[in-house]
C-alpha cells in the first residue's frame, strides 16, 4: 500500500503544480504579437533553420553582393530590339547600361536580386530623396534583362504576346508600373511588408522586417511565442496557445490558407494579412477566366498553384502542401514516383507499373507527374506543374479543344509534317496551342489528329468508364460558344455540391452568366438560392452577389437579399454587397437609415482599396463609388489622384470630364460664369490628354473590341466623326453580339445620315 500512497501523493503534488502553473498570470488576452526575426528562432529550431538555408524562400530577395549575384557582370552584353545593354562592375557595385525611362541609354546600379533558379532577376532603385529614411526603400523597378541560371546566359524577359519593342512610356517597359517591385512582387518576396506609398508626393517609404520569405511569413509574428518559451512553463498560455499560428492538425485549411496568399493569382483587398487570417478576408482569388485558364481549369497563364489545387480531388481529400513538400527546404519529400506512392499505397502494381501507365519504366511517360501534373513554361525558362492533379482527358480535347497530357508529349511526333520554317517556333506544347489560337489551321488539324489518337489509345487501355463523369468544361464551353442550352448548363453547375464541381468553377459559372443581361435575368433565382445557403464558399457567394446586383431586381428586393451580406464573416462578401448596393439605381432608392448603414460598409471598402493606393485603379474605383452616391467633391479629388498616381493610364480622365460637364450643366445659373468655364475647360483638357493614350492602347491591342469602342467614342467627342465610325465598325466586327457596340454605331450612322 505504501507505494500506492507515494504515487498518489506524487500525482497530487504534480497536479497542484500544474494547476498553479496554469492559473498563474499569463499574457494579457489582448496581447499583440510583433515580428522578431528568424535569428531568434534558430536556437530552438536549428534543424528547420538548416533546411531553410539556401531554399527558394531564403533567396526570394536579397541585396546585390558578390555572394548573391549569379549573373555575369564581367562586361557582358545582350542585344534585344536594337538595344545593346552592358552588364559590368564599378568597384563593389553591379551596374547595367541600358535604356532608361526617358529612352536614353544610362548607367543604373543593381541594388537587389530575386531568386536562385531557374532564373535570377535584378532591381534598380529610383526616386530616393531626403524624405526616404535609411531603413526604407524607394521605388524599385525590376529589369527585364535576366540571368538564366541553368544555361548561364543573359536573356530578355519579353512580356507574353508582345513581339515589338516596348516604348519607355509603356507600362510594361522595365521602368513602368507593371515592372514595379512594390506593386507586383514585394508582398510575396519579403516578410511583413508595408508598401508605404504617399499618394500626395508620389514617394515610396517601403519597409519589411526581413528581406526574404522568412519564418514569420508563414508562422506569424513570433514575439509572444518567444516570450512564452522563455518562461519555461509546463503549459503554453491559456489565451494564446503557443503564440503562433497552428498549421498542423486534421484540417488542411489553415496550412493551405497560409500558403495561398503568395501562391495564388489574386487581387489585394486588405494589406494587413498575417498568417492565420482567412484568405477571403484579404484577397480576391481570380476565377477561371479565359485568359488565365483553359475551359477545364488547366493553367494557361500563371496561376501560382492555389487556383489549380482547389479544383483537385486531392484538395477535397484534405491533402495539403506539406504532404508532398518539405515546409522548410521546399523540396519534394521523396524522389520520383515515391512522392505519389507514399500516399497511394495500393496493392503492388496498381499505379507505378506499366499495367497502369502503359509506358516503359524509366521513361517520361512512366512518371506520375507527367501525366497528372503536366508542365507549362513561364518567364521563358521556368516550367511549372499544373496542381489540379487531373486524370488526362483526351476525349475532352477531341470534344472541346482543351489540352491533355498525352497530346502534350505526343504532339512532337507530328513535327515532321510541319513546314520547316515553323518548326523552330514549336518547341513546346504551349507553342502549338498559341499558334492554333492565332488561327493556324494546318497545326490545328495535326493537333486534332493527335488528340484523336490519344483518345483511342485511352479507350483501348481504360475503357469507356474513364468518361463516366461530365465536366464543368462542357458547360463553360457551350456557353462561350453561344449554344442554346449553354445558360442552363452553367446554372446547373453553379448550384452543384462542392464535391461534384469545385467552388472556383461554380463561381466562374456565375461570373460568365453576369456578362449578358438576358442571362442575368434567367439566373436571378439561382443567385438567391446560393445566398440563402450559409454553407456556400465566400467566392461563390461573392459571384452570386455580382450577378444579383447586375440584375433588374427592384431596390427594395435587392436590399432585402443583400443587406445580410453587409455583416458577413467574409470581407470578400461584405465588399461585393456594399459595392453592388452603391449602384445609383439602388442607392438613391434606399431609406436614410439604409444609406447610413451602407455608407459605413463602404468605408471598409475604401480602406481595402487604399491598400493599393499606388495604383490608379484604387482611386478610380473609390471615385466612382463617391460619384454614384452624389459625393461630387470627393469623386473629383479621387479622380485627380488617380491621374496623378498613374498619369499614363486611361480611364480616370473621361470619367472626370463627364462629371465636370454634368456639374456645369446642373449648376448653370447657380455658380459664377468663371466657375462654369473652369469646369468646361478642364473637361476639354482631360479629353485631349486621354485621346493619345487611348490611341496607344488600341494600337497595341488592335483585336480588343472594347478598346476600339472606347477609342471610337473618344473620337466622336473630339469631333473626328469619320475616325469614330471606323473604330466603332471595327468594334462591331470584332464583337458583333455586343448590343452597346451595335447601338453606338447605329446612332453615329444616323447622325451622319448614313444608311
UniProtKB/TrEMBL annotation:
TPR repeat copies, ranges: 705-738
Entry keyword set: Repeat, Signal, TPR repeat
Domain spans labelled Cytochrome c-552/4: 182-220
Pfam families named in the record: Cytochrome_C554, TPR_2
Coiled-coil regions, chain positions: none
PANTHER family in UniProt: C-TYPE POLYHEME CYTOCHROME OMCC (PTHR35038:SF8), DISSIMILATORY SULFITE REDUCTASE SIRA (PTHR35038)
Protein name as catalogued: Tetratricopeptide repeat protein
Species annotation: Roseimaritima ulvae
Amino acid at each position: 500500500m505504501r507505494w500506492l500512497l507515494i504515487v498518489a501523493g506524487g500525482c497530487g503534488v504534480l497536479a497542484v503544480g500544474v494547476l498553479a502553473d496554469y492559473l498563474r498570470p499569463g499574457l494579457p488576452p489582448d496581447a499583440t504579437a510583433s515580428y522578431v526575426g528568424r535569428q531568434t528562432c534558430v536556437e530552438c529550431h536549428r534543424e528547420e533553420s538548416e533546411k531553410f538555408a539556401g531554399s527558394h524562400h531564403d533567396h526570394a530577395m536579397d541585396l546585390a553582393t558578390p555572394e548573391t549575384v549569379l549573373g555575369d557582370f564581367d562586361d557582358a552584353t545582350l542585344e534585344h530590339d536594337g538595344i545593346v545593354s552592358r552588364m559590368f562592375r564599378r568597384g563593389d557595385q553591379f551596374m547595367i547600361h541600358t535604356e532608361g525611362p526617358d529612352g536614353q541609354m544610362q548607367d543604373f546600379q543593381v541594388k537587389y536580386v530575386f531568386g536562385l533558379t531557374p532564373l535570377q532577376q535584378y532591381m534598380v532603385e529610383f526616386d530616393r530623396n531626403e524624405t526616404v529614411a535609411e531603413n526604407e526603400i524607394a521605388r524599385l523597378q525590376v529589369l527585364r534583362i535576366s540571368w538564366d541560371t541553368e544555361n548561364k546566359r543573359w536573356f530578355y524577359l519579353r512580356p507574353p504576346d508582345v513581339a515589338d519593342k516596348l516604348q519607355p512610356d509603356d507600362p510594361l517597359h522595365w521602368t513602368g508600373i507593371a515592372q514595379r517591385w512594390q506593386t507586383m512582387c514585394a508582398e510575396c518576396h519579403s516578410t511583413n511588408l508595408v508598401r508605404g506609398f504617399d499618394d500626395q508626393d508620389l514617394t515610396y517609404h517601403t519597409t519589411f522586417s526581413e528581406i526574404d520569405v522568412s519564418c514569420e511569413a508563414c508562422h506569424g509574428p513570433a514575439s509572444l511565442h518567444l516570450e512564452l518559451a522563455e518562461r519555461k512553463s509546463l503549459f503554453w498560455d491559456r489565451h494564446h496557445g503557443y503564440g503562433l499560428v497552428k498549421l498542423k492538425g486534421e484540417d488542411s485549411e489553415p496550412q493551405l490558407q497560409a500558403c495561398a496568399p503568395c501562391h495564388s493569382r489574386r487581387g489585394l483587398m486588405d494589406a494587413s494579412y498575417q498568417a492565420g487570417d482567412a484568405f477571403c478576408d484579404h484577397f480576391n482569388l481570380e476565377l477561371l477566366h479565359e485568359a488565365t485558364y483553359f475551359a477545364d481549369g488547366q493553367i494557361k497563364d500563371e496561376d501560382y498553384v492555389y487556383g489549380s489545387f482547389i479544383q483537385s480531388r486531392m484538395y477535397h481529400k484534405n491533402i495539403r502542401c506539406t504532404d508532398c513538400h518539405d515546409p522548410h527546404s521546399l523540396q519534394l519529400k521523396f524522389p520520383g514516383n515515391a512522392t505519389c506512392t507514399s500516399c497511394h499505397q495500393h496493392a503492388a502494381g496498381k499505379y507505378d507499373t506499366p499495367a497502369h501507365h502503359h509506358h516503359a519504366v524509366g521513361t517520361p511517360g512512366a512518371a506520375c507527374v507527367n501525366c497528372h501534373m503536366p508542365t507549362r513554361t513561364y518567364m521563358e525558362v521556368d516550367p511549372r506543374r499544373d496542381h489540379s492533379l487531373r486524370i488526362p482527358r483526351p476525349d475532352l480535347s477531341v470534344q472541346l479543344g482543351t489540352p491533355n497530357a498525352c497530346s502534350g508529349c505526343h504532339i512532337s511526333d507530328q513535327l515532321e509534317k510541319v513546314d520547316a520554317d515553323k518548326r523552330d517556333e514549336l518547341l513546346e506544347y504551349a507553342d502549338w496551342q498559341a499558334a492554333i489560337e492565332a488561327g493556324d489551321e494546318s497545326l490545328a488539324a495535326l493537333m486534332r489528329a493527335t488528340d484523336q489518337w490519344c483518345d483511342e489509345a485511352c479507350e483501348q487501355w481504360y475503357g469507356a468508364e474513364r468518361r463516366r463523369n461530365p465536366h464543368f468544361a462542357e458547360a463553360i464551353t457551350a456557353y462561350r460558344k453561344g449554344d442554346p442550352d449553354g445558360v442552363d448548363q452553367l446554372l446547373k453547375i453553379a448550384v452543384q455540391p462542392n464535391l461534384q464541381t469545385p467552388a472556383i468553377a461554380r463561381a466562374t459559372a456565375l461570373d460568365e452568366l453576369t456578362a449578358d443581361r438576358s442571362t442575368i435575368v434567367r439566373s436571378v433565382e439561382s443567385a438567391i438560392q446560393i445566398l440563402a445557403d450559409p454553407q456556400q464558399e465566400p467566392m461563390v457567394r461573392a459571384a452570386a452577389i455580382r450577378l444579383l446586383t447586375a440584375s433588374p431586381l427592384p431596390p427594395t428586393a435587392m436590399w432585402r437579399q443583400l443587406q445580410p451580406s453587409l455583416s458577413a464573416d467574409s470581407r470578400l462578401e461584405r465588399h461585393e454587397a456594399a459595392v453592388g448596393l452603391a449602384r445609383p439605381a439602388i442607392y438613391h432608392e434606399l431609406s436614410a437609415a439604409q444609406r447610413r448603414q451602407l455608407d459605413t460598409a463602404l468605408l471598409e471598402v475604401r480602406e481595402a482599396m487604399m491598400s493599393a493606393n499606388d495604383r490608379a485603379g484604387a482611386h478610380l474605383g473609390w471615385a466612382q463609388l463617391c460619384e454614384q452616391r452624389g459625393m461630387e467633391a470627393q469623386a473629383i479629388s479621387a479622380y485627380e489622384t488617380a491621374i496623378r498616381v498613374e498619369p499614363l493610364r486611361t480611364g480616370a480622365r473621361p470619367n472626370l470630364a463627364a462629371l465636370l460637364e454634368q456639374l456645369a450643366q446642373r449648376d448653370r445659373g447657380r455658380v459664377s460664369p468663371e466657375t462654369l468655364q473652369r469646369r468646361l475647360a478642364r473637361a476639354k483638357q482631360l479629353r485631349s490628354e486621354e485621346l493619345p493614350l487611348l490611341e496607344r492602347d488600341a494600337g497595341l491591342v488592335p483585336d480588343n473590341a472594347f478598346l476600339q469602342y472606347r477609342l471610337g467614342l473618344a473620337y466622336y467627342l473630339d469631333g473626328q466623326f469619320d475616325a469614330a465610325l471606323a473604330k466603332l465598325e471595327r468594334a462591331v466586327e470584332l464583337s458583333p453580339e455586343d448590343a452597346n457596340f451595335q447601338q453606338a454605331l447605329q446612332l453615329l450612322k444616323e447622325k451622319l445620315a448614313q444608311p
